[in-house]
């Protein structure tokens, strides 16, 4: 309840915390609202049902101090259920710790960045633009890949985020996700041979998802 949360924030008595309520307008709208109001040089997102380890930001800022050219840092994470039961490692991206060379091209194959693990310079938004509210199912992927068009990311191979898995992997949501990812790819700059190959792989993967969901629907509705 917003009244209870206001009282909780007031109890901190710490000027570093600000509670700025707004009407529900979707995930992208909320993130854009927060970034616009922020006064710091760095931005970090955390969704309402995810968790940070207590040293998450400290470890990322250590990377910044040691690598001042870095603009975005993301970390590994663990999957958790609705009762905070650990379900295993979330990302399993196979990346080595350090700068991910040609991050944009790698992301054309699929998203490997947990949005609640990201820390990036606020100045990057002026280059990449705001989160796009037209994407309702994969706004994280769409915003992340636009940021990657302007900078390579740094991967901190530490499990510092708990990413919550919901029981909402319905056929309808699978269809929406596949359709949005196809639209996302259509809006991207795809120039090199490697970019074309990886983006085509991603497109075909999503087309298979669409076809599979459609066949399941047909079979379920047979006379």
Explained architecture:
The chain is α+β, with helices and mostly antiparallel strands and 223 residues long. The protein has helices spanning 2-12, 27-37, 56-66, 103-107, 123-128, 139-148, 171-186, 193-220; strands at residues 42-44, 51-52, 72-80, 86-89, 98-100, 119-121, 153-164. Strands 1, 2, 3, 4, 5, 6 and 7 form a 7-stranded mixed beta sheet that branches. Helix 7 packs antiparallel against helix 8. The protein starts with a helix and ends with a helix. 24% of the residues are buried. The mean pLDDT is 89.
List the helices and strands and how they pair.
Blueprint: H1 2-12, H2 27-37, E1 42-44, E2 51-52, H3 56-66, E3 72-80, E4 86-89, E5 98-100, H4 103-107, E6 119-121, H5 123-128, H6 139-148, E7 153-164, H7 171-186, H8 193-220
Parallel strand pairs: 3-7
Antiparallel strand pairs: 1-6, 2-7, 3-4, 3-6, 5-7
Helix pairs in contact: 7-8
Label the structural class: alpha+beta
Strand count: 7
- Rg value: 19 Å
Q: H/E series, N to C? A: HHEEHEEEHEHHEHH
The biggest sheet, with number of strands, parallel, antiparallel or mixed sense and barrel status, is: 7 strands, mixed
Task: Considering the chains and any ligands shown, give keywords for the structure.
alpha+beta, 8 helices
